[in-house]
């Protein structure tokens, strides 16, 4: 049974699941009814970060247009442009054993495509979540439901996988950005 986390909580992943090497990080959301008349396209992404919390290159930003990092250890499985359906809207697969040694953490984010021009923000999004699933068994190990704490934000860092004493842990972050993807990219050391 999955462990449900609250914002700010951290949990062991590999220590409590010996032999776990491949995980799927699933992100999901629903959009509230609104009369903006424009499509609502949310995107999942990941940033592979060094000890300073920065991406070493653009290859460390994984999303639908750059579906894997250089080592192939983090792979985006595809863009869901509508968010329709149940379960995960987008997924990233992580091979924990293959993540390069210089990567200390992997931040998972959700952004709203073209949010400013479309007048959209996370106040119009509900039921957002991130979950970590063991790829081999399909068992959901960790789940973090973000709640309805966002209003004007257009990007959210939802959670992070990070190394600690040779093990992988997961942290529920839930940190919003008003300046969308550009803010994330800048904070993670890349050119916006």
Structure description:
By secondary structure, the chain is mostly beta strands. The chain has one domain: Sandwich (Lipoxygenase-1). Helices cover 6% and strands 42% of the residues. The protein has two helices and twelve strands; from the N terminus they run E-E-E-E-E-E-E-E-H-E-E-E-E-H. The strands form two sheets. It has a six-stranded mixed beta sheet, with no helix packed on it. A six-stranded antiparallel beta sheet has the order 2-12-11-8-4-5, covered by helices on one side. Strand 9 (125-134) and strand 10 (140-145) form a beta hairpin. The protein is globular and about 50 Å long. It starts with a strand and ends in a 5-residue tail after the last helix. The mean pLDDT is 90.
Instruction: Report the strand count.
Output: 12
Name of the CATH first level: Mainly Beta
What is the CATH T-level topology?
Answer: Lipoxygenase-1
Q: What Rg do the Cα atoms give?
A: 16 Å
Estimate the mean pLDDT confidence. Answer: 90
Secondary-structure element order, N to C:
EEEEEEEEHEEEEH
Q: Reading side by side through the largest sheet, how are the strands ordered? A: 1-10-9-3-7-6
Strand content: 35-45%
Q: Determine the structural class based on helices, strands and strand pairing.
A: mainly beta
């Amino acid at each position: 049974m999955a462990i449900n986390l609250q914002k700010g909580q951290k949990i062991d992943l590999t220590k409590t699941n010996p032999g776990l090497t491949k995980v799927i990080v699933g992100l999901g959301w629903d959009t509230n009814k609104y009369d903006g008349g424009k499509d609502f396209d949310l995107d999942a992404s990941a940033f592979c970060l060094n000890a300073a919390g920065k991406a070493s290159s653009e290859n460390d930003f994984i999303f639908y247009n750059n579906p894997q990092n250089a080592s192939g250890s983090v792979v985006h499985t595809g863009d869901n442009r509508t968010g329709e359906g149940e379960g995960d809207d987008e997924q990233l697969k992580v091979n924990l054993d293959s993540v390069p040694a210089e990567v200390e953490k992997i931040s998972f984010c959700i952004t709203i495509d073209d949010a400013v021009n479309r007048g959209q923000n996370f106040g119009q999004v509900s039921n957002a979540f991130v979950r970590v699933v063991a790829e081999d068994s399909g068992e959901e190990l960790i789940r973090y439901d973000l709640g309805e704490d966002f209003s004007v934000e257009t990007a959210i860092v939802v959670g992070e996988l990070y190394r600690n004493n040779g093990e992988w842990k997961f942290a529920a972050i839930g940190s919003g950005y008003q300046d969308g993807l550009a803010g994330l990219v800048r904070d993670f050391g890349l050119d916006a």
